[in-house]
Amino acid sequence: MSVMRVVFMGSAPLSCRALESLFAADVTRSEDGPSLPVQVVGVVTQPDRPKGRSLTVASSPVKMLAERKGVPVLSPENVNAAESLVAIRALRPDIAVVVAFGQMLSENLLNLPPRKCVNVHASLLPRYRGAAPIQWAIANGDIVTGVTTMYMVRKMDAGDIIMQREVRIPADDTAGVLHDRLASEGATLLMETLEAISQGTVVSRAQDETAVTLAPKLYKEDGRIRWAMPAAAIHNRIRAFNPWPGSFCLLPVGSKRAPETEVSRLKILRTRVESVQAETGRVIEVSGEGPLIGTGRDALRILEVQPEGKKIMSGDSYLCGHALNLNDFLL
After folding, report:
1. Percentage of the chain with pLDDT > 90?
2. Strand, helix or coil at 99?
3. How confident is the model at residue 258 (pLDDT cuts 50, 70, 90)?
4. Among the residues of the chain, which ranges form H helices?
5. Nearest to 286 by CA among 327, 234, 227, 331
6. Does 113 sit behind a cis peptide bond, omega within 30 degrees of 0 on the bond before it?
């Protein structure tokens, strides 16, 4: 069996487990003996970007991993530019593996590797096409999701499915926890997919376009809690948006100059639904494990929070040290 030359394209932390699995199978780099005849001949990732509050320029996790392995790294602003295509073609890839890369691929790039471009996507396609499949699966209250490998086409996440694997979503999973589980399952499924491709045993199938759902990109404002929603829906969104973009509400902060007009932000990390009905956004209890807030249906007990500029704390600790009164309203 001949060695399959692989170009890997990825940028996000989700990509790293897949790249680590490829390195473990790489006939030129494996320390434990190769499990599949592949060779990672190059890595393509996003350019270094400013990150964090300090806006310090940092490399993607994929770039740092590739550099530790001594693999050539390309970081183009536009992977479809002529110079990028020339550089990738020079690596002579048999196949491209794409995992959370962050740029759309042109037809020229998709057709460059003889064995096509294979993508690992963190959902059971055709459900949750788009940038945030993990978060939206939790936000919508799903109890099962999964990973999919597919051949890539110009339309986002619409290519023929190669393999899929289901993954359950426990009731207390956050997006961060589920992300790590899917990254591991995706890496395993990728290696099975590459083995099937190398042996010529792949039987792919078209996606059912009537069953498509979307998982659009998230923005910070998506984390704003809407107390008019049912408590269960808010609870699921808090799980889904942890760690990013995070869920928050605003607390009115009275002052002599501007009573009830200043606000502070309260980040909410963990909650529980309780069968109590009250006015939307009203604080109906300030005892026990944390404040209890009325919603559009039932109520939400706040179990873990992070006040603006402070550390994460439990709901009862928050009640001990912060002024929150019965019949206050969270915005």
Report:
1. 85
2. strand
3. very low
4. 13-25, 61-68, 82-90, 107-110, 133-139, 175-199, 231-240, 315-321
5. 327
6. no
